[in-house]
Design a protein that fits this description.
This protein is of the alpha+beta class. The protein is 26% helix and 22% strand. The chain has six helices and ten strands; from the N terminus they run αββββββββαααααββ. The chain has a four-stranded antiparallel β-sheet with strand order 1-6-7-5, covered by helices on one side. A four-stranded antiparallel β-sheet has the order 2-3-4-8. The chain has a two-stranded antiparallel sheet with strand order 9-10. A hairpin with a 2-residue loop joins β2 and β3. α1 runs parallel beside α6 and α5 crosses α6. The chain is elongated, with a radius of gyration of 20 Å. The chain binds a DNA duplex through loops.
DNA sequence: TGATATGTTATCTT
DNA sequence: CAAGATAACATATC
């Protein structure tokens, strides 16, 4: 499902397709997913796009933003010409050059909203640091770990207010590569292991961005599928890269794969 | 048929 | 109080 690398991939592709374009009209087809206020973006220009956590932000030339969260099954489709909205369409943007962008969501959990600067600020206020930012140092990672010594490490990696953008796939991958069991209480992680985890989180996320993310089930970016699934060590696997059979448990209601030989 | 998958948040439990 | 577990959301797929 879309986590940081998948969302980053989508943002980069959207950047190339819609940045600089003027929105001629917006039609909301599913108001549960797409906010009716999206219509306020009519006649505005998309100046640039960026990602924050798992959110896609379209900057508009009036300082407001269109903000999308794909949750599990949301996706964008771009067409150079007017196209039929199709099944599961939540909203469709038509640009002044005749192209269009359609937002779909099968499960209808996704969100697509028009937000003013203070609304955007409020929406992002509880998010933790971006793991790939230069400002996210090992020292900062140690500082936030120290605040929750009794928590289980995997649960905090999934907590967007702790660190932003990591989901169920990359949490498990990073823990495997760092050699740490998902159930480890944070206070039991040595300084050396903290450093390894910090390094692996950044290495795995950066590598996955480079591979355009992971395609499992139905995630696909605008131009096809990701390629990181070929690099998965544990997620939905039966054996780790060292050929050890993997264990599976349910942590916080989420499936968790790990190797009891490689992870301690 | 029913279990499972997923991200996030609210709420219940320990 | 804190942290974990669970439910809720919606729907396709196995």
């Amino acid at each position: 499902m879309p986590e940081l690398p998948e969302v980053e991939t989508i943002v980069r592709q959207l950047q190339g397709k819609v940045a600089g374009k003027t929105i001629a009209s917006i039609v909301v087809h599913d108001s549960k997913v797409a906010d009716r206020n999206l219509s306020r973006a009519s006649n505005l220009q998309i100046t640039s796009l960026y990602r924050r956590a798992k959110y896609i932000v379209f900057n508009l030339n009036n300082k407001s933003s269109l903000v999308a969260h794909l949750r599990m099954t949301g996706y964008f489709q771009f067409s150079d010409v007017t196209s039929n909205p199709g099944d599961y369409c939540a909203a469709q943007l038509k640009f002044s050059d005749g192209s269009c962008l359609t937002f779909h969501d099968i499960r209808r959990f996704a969100e697509f909203s028009y937000l003013s600067p203070p609304e955007l600020e409020a929406r992002f206020s509880s998010l933790g640091p971006e793991p790939l930012d230069k400002q996210f140092t090992l020292q900062q990672f140690r500082t936030i770990l120290a605040k929750v010594p009794r928590s289980v490490i995997k649960s905090k990696l999934l907590d967007q207010s702790f660190i932003a953008g990591i989901g169920n796939i990359y949490a498990q991958e990073a823990l495997y590569h760092a050699g740490i069991l998902p159930t480890t209480p944070i206070k039991d992680i040595s300084r050396k292991q903290q450093e390894k985890l910090y390094t692996e989180i950044r290495r795995i996320l950066a590598l996955a961005v480079e591979k355009n993310g992971t395609t499992v089930n139905n995630y696909a970016h605008l131009d096809g599928k990701g390629k990181f699934q070929g690099f998965l060590a544990v997620y939905q696997q039966t054996h780790c890269p060292q050929k050890h059979p993997l264990q599976f448990l349910r942590l916080g209601g989420r499936g968790t794969y790990y190797c009891s030989t490689c992870q301690k």
